[in-house]
Amino acid sequence: MWTKTRSADSVPVSGLSIYDPVHLGIDEHGRRVDIELVYRNILFGGEPGSGKSSGLQNIIGHASMCTDCQLWLFDGKQVELGLWRSIADVFVGPDITEAIDRLEQLQKEMDRRYDELDQVRRRKITSVDPVDVIVAVIDEIALFSATLGSKDQQEQFVRLLRDLVARGRAAGVIVVAATQRPSADIVPTSLRDIFAYRCAFRCTTEASSDTILGRGWAQQGYSATAIAPENLGVGLLLAEGGIPRRMKYAYLTDAHIYGLVEHSQHLRTQHAA
Ligand SMILES: Nc1ncnc2c1ncn2[C@@H]1O[C@H](COP(=O)(O)OP(=O)(O)OP(=O)(O)O)[C@@H](O)[C@H]1O
Ligand SMILES: [Mg+2]
């Protein structure tokens, strides 16, 4: 039972928390694009090489600087998120059986947290609770939902993912996912619609762009087909209730990531001491 709250000693040494806005990049007017990720989920879609994984790295970079969250990385391609492996609490490569096991584990943890919240008559976890937010990053959904394993396993993966996106937020589970194939068989509307943030990187068809952003946006002039192929890392970001915002993601080089990983290791060691 959560009788205690985080003590002043456990405030992250870096001063950064997963409850703080996450910096993603700049918009076309040069303004910062920072999003509140806690209690929300985010979906990235777009053609191969459009900048989805690089966009994800910004979120992982933020999470790596926080000692109030755990990082669960699901990387079907193994090397996209592999640079963060040493600081990840969980790292799953191209293995559908392990991916399902881990999602089931996450689902159990979510249910356990809801039981505890229920017992103390609360609706959601907050920054003072001695419970880590869990940031689950999945790159790329299609590998687990349509390529690896049997049909049953793929369906099970999508069922678990949908449940985590639908119910995870108040329990402190944030799902961050990317897909190269923004089509209804990979991202069913029922799954797409429950992501609070959605970002369409360059797409080849208006239908693909709408699969990420939602039906009707292309017709209103918000189509990721308008992003030039050489404009890597540019996307249309849709936040709950708003209109899509064209933005350019910040880009972390491998050297930046090595530096962040080293700093994160240091923070985590200090936090554990
Ligand atoms: N924000 C950015 N600024 C500058 N260059 C970028 C940016 N994002 C991506 N790139 C460049 O584009 C390349 C492809 O990006 P990335 O791997 O993120 O694409 P992707 O959409 O994940 O592709 P895939 O679907 O094949 O996984 C990167 O290696 C990098 O060179
Ligand atoms: Mg990628």
Walkthrough of the structure:
InterPro entries: FtsK/SpoIIIE/SftA, FtsK_dom, P-loop_NTPase. Residues 19-210 form the FtsK domain. It holds the Pfam family FtsK_SpoIIIE. It comes from Halopolyspora algeriensis. The protein is α/β, with parallel strands linked by helices. The protein has a single domain, classed as Rossmann fold. The protein contains seven helices and ten strands. The protein has helices spanning 52-64, 96-119, 141-147, 151-167, 189-192, 206-213, 254-272, and strands at 22-27, 32-35, 42-45, 69-75, 90-92, 133-139, 173-179, 197-201, 234-238, 245-249. Strands 2-1-10-9-8-3-7-6-4-5 form a ten-stranded mixed beta sheet. Helix 2 packs parallel to helix 4 (151-167) and helix 3 packs antiparallel against helix 4. Bound molecules: adenosine-5'-triphosphate and magnesium ion (MG). Magnesium ion binds next to helix 1. Magnesium ion (MG) is lined by residues 52-53, 80, 139.
Spell out the blueprint of helices and strands.
Layout: E1 22-27, E2 32-35, E3 42-45, H1 52-64, E4 69-75, E5 90-92, H2 96-119, E6 133-139, H3 141-147, H4 151-167, E7 173-179, H5 189-192, E8 197-201, H6 206-213, E9 234-238, E10 245-249, H7 254-272
Helix pairs in contact: 2-4, 3-4
The structure holds adenosine-5'-triphosphate (ATP) and magnesium ion.
Residues 46, 48-54, 180, 201, 232-233, 248-249, 251 line the site of adenosine-5'-triphosphate.
